Structures
1.
Amino acid sequence: MSVISLRGIKKSYQLGENRVEALRGVSLDIAQGEFVAITGPSGSGKSTMMHILGCLDRPGEGEYLLNGKNVSSLSRDELADIRNKEIGFVFQGFNLLPRTTALENVEVPLLYTRPTMPAAERRERAMKALVAMGLADRHDHHPNQLSGGQQQRVAIARALVNEPALILADEPTGNLDTRTSVEVMRILQDLRETRGITIVLITHEPDIAAHGTRIIAIRDGDIVSDEANQAAIAHP
Ligand code: ADP
Ligand code: ADP
């Protein structure tokens, strides 16, 4: 079974008098354990794709099956529930709460999905995710006391805390220097290899896309190529 199955996904926006077709009928299957990079120039439909894959928005037409479940026509509340339980998000801007510690930031998804979990267990789980990201000694630091790379690792720990089968990473290296970007890509590759987590990465940068085991290029709302990336498969 595919983790993600898209069938004829269309999405358009009304822009003044014009209708902009952001996705023109995208069909796609992503299997468990793939690291798929979706790449394309500005305006090609990457953000729209990310919003649909992340259940942040619904397709105009077509079907989206996530872990075998049709999520195309669920209500906003149902989508929010799926988003919190089944998907880990990593963003360009880290999106950490500034006035809370690294540990508290990682606890946040558990507050939504497991409201009755005892605080001690919540802390323990969050700590485990931070340890996996090599940040045990930074657990009581606030985001502004951490480097960009460390902040992104906190965000990845937060994405992992609910043990999702899928991580969606939207331009996760956009605010990072080259060396730190490579470090973050290695972490994502490692999550795929050691835990079998499916990764979908959205990026406009070819060097970053090259870390995926499969590279999908989109242009003007259509998939224009979809190829296995032997280099990343053979030399992780
Ligand atoms: P990318 O992320 O690759 O830059 P987008 O998905 O943001 O691409 O945009 C695809 C197309 O849809 C573009 O032509 C863009 O201008 C248009 N678009 C995206 N969001 C909106 C919106 N909220 N309203 C109107 N047009 C939009
Ligand atoms: P970036 O830092 O990559 O620009 P944004 O902060 O703009 O990312 O977020 C990308 C999209 O995801 C936005 O439309 C935003 O509303 C949405 N978003 C951001 N953070 C969350 C979140 N924690 N949960 C759900 N949606 C989010």
2.
Amino acid sequence: AKESGRNNYQYFTAAMNARVSQRLLLENNLRQALARQELALHYQPQYDLHSGTLVGCEALLRWRQPEQGLIPPDRFIPVAEETGLILPIGQWVLREACRQAQAWQDAGLPPLVVAVNISAVQFRQANLAALVQEALAASGLSPCWLELELTESMLMEDGERHTQTLAQLKAMGIRLALDDFGTGYSSLAYLKRFSLDKLKIDRSFIRDLPQDAEDAAITTAIIGMARDLGLETLAEGVETEQQWSFLAERGCAQMQGFLRARPMPADEITALLGRHRSA
Ligand code: C2E
Ligand code: CA
Ligand code: CA
Ligand code: CA
């Protein structure tokens, strides 16, 4: 028993060491990723649910690591947040998304709102509004074409400073969206405290529509509440025609999902926009 206990222990530490060194490798590689230009943005189209028009796109980070291949954001963003690397990376995302949105407009394509995910770590920076302003100024993009995606937990954090940051961003004319809506906190008080523009209904409520009665009730309630509060709604993760019609019938404004388009490189969006213009 003693013998096998020791073996288990050795096995355990070996597995743990492997995990720790894998994590260190990821962290060290991530430190180089920006300078080595391994990061890129893909863009996922967002459509008006009634006209079917392309109205916006969400910028989604991609990391092509030379040895490990494509590493999904769910794996490296937590590491970037723990190490603080999310700050330079997040600023690069903001600048690159604004630059791209302005480049589409400069090419004479129909203007699109570009949505950028903001990490809680970025949101805690006292100078976030100034950093956003810097990205807009560098690109020449008008603030009305930039949407920042925040999460419920970020708005719950610390009242004073966050209220001020949000007020500054709104005063600049930037759009604010609440990401993964419905998965965070049960308190809805912040919906009236902050001036948001849009609720993004989380994919987990959309997935089993229209069959799942609870999800149907929740989604319908969110759309109705948003309408009464003067907020736009976007359904995330729409994958079927039935989901599309369910949402359209209930007055949801926009959708984003594999049914219409996956995240894609900027040049594919350029082609989509070109077709939109000639249509
Ligand atoms: P998110 O903000 O909720 O982004 C939407 C995710 O859902 C994306 O995954 C997208 O590819 C996926 N998705 C969209 N439509 C569908 C669908 O119809 N079906 C399914 N199954 N999935 C769909 P992705 O690109 O892997 O991003 C994962 C998460 O990583 C994002 O979730 C976001 O939290 C984070 N992330 C991505 N880019 C950034 C970034 O630039 N900054 C920060 N802070 N976080 C980011
Ligand atoms: Ca998002
Ligand atoms: Ca989301
Ligand atoms: Ca998410």
3.
Amino acid sequence: MPYETITTQTDGAVTTITLNRPQALNALSSVVLDELIEAFTAYQNDDSQLCAILTGSGDRAFAAGADIKEMSEKDAADFYLQDFFAKWTSHIVEAVRKPWIAAVNGFALGGGCELAMMADFIIASDRAKFGQPEIKLGVAPGMGGSQRLTRAVGKAKAMEMCLTGRMMDAEEAERSGLVARVVPHDTLMDEARTTAATIAGMPPMAAMVNKEMVNAAYETFLGQGVLHERRLFQILTATEDKAEGMKAFIEKRDGQWKGR
Ligand code: CO8
């Protein structure tokens, strides 16, 4: 079934999901939310797909936030009763155990910044701008922005951005640890696809375990995180890909992966 507000495309083992409401700077309406969940679920369930990229259509925005026009019609009871945006955590952050990258091609504001921060990492165009300007609308981040931004860039910058609504450009975002890499705007998708193909070429179960380990550093205290890492490492040593990877190294050849 074709989507209304996003597009999806596969190339080898890489899925690209594109937010496609350029006239509204890819604002995240409920329809976008539902379609993204569907697309990420399809990616997770397709064994042939091993890395995904999320990006925005048009030249200006990744996503300029939750859809303000839609939100302006809702009251507190609507937000609470519908548990607005809760499904993103369960369906996009927790249920997607395979890797995915946000390729941020312009504005990533409010919910757009929060969505990008749900990715395993961000590659940014040199025109990207990040911000949590919700305070200017009389609200605050509601999809994890105050928590993930603070973990990424530290309290000082996160607090300043949330309290003033100021945007961070790509260079500052890289310097502050919010993004993995900044690339020239015109090369963004090529860079993202090359990186995704590299990840897709890794032993798939090891990719999932590496993702789970790094995410554990976000969620736990150091001692618990290190224990979690050690146990997962021990599980990986029982895989056929571990035996093959080490054998291939010793035999000076590329590994042939089974994904188990
Ligand atoms: N929602 C809906 N429409 C939007 C949004 C948005 N977030 N952002 C831009 N648009 C629309 C504009 O209304 C405009 O449409 P139209 O032409 O029909 O008027 C079109 O996109 C182009 O935008 P502008 O004319 O404003 O373009 P400019 O170049 O002048 O400005 C900006 C670009 C600076 C990005 C500006 O559009 C802007 O400030 N946008 C809003 C940014 C923002 O405040 N984002 C945060 C939204 S709140 C949020 O995300 C909360 C998430 C958590 C909720 C959790 C609930 C539980």
